[in-house]
Amino acid sequence: MSATRTVKPVSAGDETIDRLPIVDLQNFAFDEAGADRIAKEIDRIFSETGFCYLSNTGVSDAEIARIFEASKAFHALPQADKEAVAINAYHRGYMAPKTSLIVTSSVATVTKPNNSESLMIMHEIAGDDPRFGQDLQGPNQWPDKLPAFRADVQEYVDAMLGLARRFTTLIARALGMAPDALDHFFARPTTFLRLLHYPPQPNAADDEFGSAPHTDYGFITILLQDGVGGLEVRRRGGGWIKATPVPGTFVINVGDILARWTNGRWQSTPHRVQNKNTVDRYSVPFFFDPDMSETITCLPGCVAANEAPRFEPIVYGKYLMERIDKNYSYRNAAGGAA
């Protein structure tokens, strides 16, 4: 377990703040009253900003160190070795710089592709799984020249799955439901682990990004970032908050599906990355989403009895594929077929 760190929270409601609020999970596992207190805090923050830091998550310093080492080792490989695991039709593998253009951004007209590279790893699908061959249901790809890579990545994925599932019980509490009310949606979660590398862009123009302004597609994102910085989160009133790295924390945010699930009660907040430093930046977002086959309808308690939901029910997988097909150049080249 990581050593306990004491971090002073910051009010989420103040539009003049220059740092996101921090939620401390230290008492979550041991104290029912503490869990309810944290849930109320999450409801307030996700209603106001949609973003916060998480501290005392139970993810070890060793697991964090190993995933960063794995990411740096992968991105240090010769380009030919990275291209050998180029992203496949199941959205798993290496994405070279400037191969994604966020045309679905709700806050900017994006004309330049993202200047970042990444390795995408999703939930494992065995060859005998009935879903095999369907949209996004296929094999991951692993670099041959890094023998410890797969085990280190899987260790981190397991840690993220545990954290995401625990946090989902807090989300249910925050929305006035039983802690296990959402569990069945995630019996077979759709997950993405992305090992991102942002090269330095100290002279980047205002419209040049490592990741252009966007919202995340899914349920929640749990982000591990190094100490370099560059992530910014849009305030509801305009302008941007720097998500300055805080040691011992993750950044967590609401995705579009969770905002839709809560009928807009919670905010899926735009964010962006510009690495204007002179050194490389590495980050590891973990996206935790429902089963592709799940239908997303307004959750109980998120709409008044005499009001209609703001959003029509949707199948998560259909919603997701529409966005992936639009934003990634390899999908266009392949005609969007999985």
From TrEMBL:
Q: In which pathway does it act?
A: Alkene biosynthesis; ethylene biosynthesis via 2-oxoglutarate
Question: Top enzyme class of this protein?
Answer: oxidoreductase
* Keyword line: Ethylene biosynthesis, Iron, Metal-binding, Oxidoreductase
Q: Does the keyword Phosphoprotein apply?
A: no
Query: Which intervals hold domain Fe2OG dioxygenase?
Result: 189-290
Q: Which InterPro entries match?
A: DIOX_N, IPNS-like_FE2OG_OXY, IPNS-like_sf, Iron_ascorbate_oxido_reductase, Oxoglu/Fe-dep_dioxygenase_dom
| Record's catalysed reaction(s) | 2-oxoglutarate + O2 + 2 H(+) = ethene + 3 CO2 + H2O; L-arginine + 2-oxoglutarate + O2 = guanidine + L-glutamate 5-semialdehyde + succinate + CO2
Record protein name field: 2-oxoglutarate-dependent ethylene/succinate-forming enzyme
Question: What organism is this sequence from?
Answer: Lichenifustis flavocetrariae
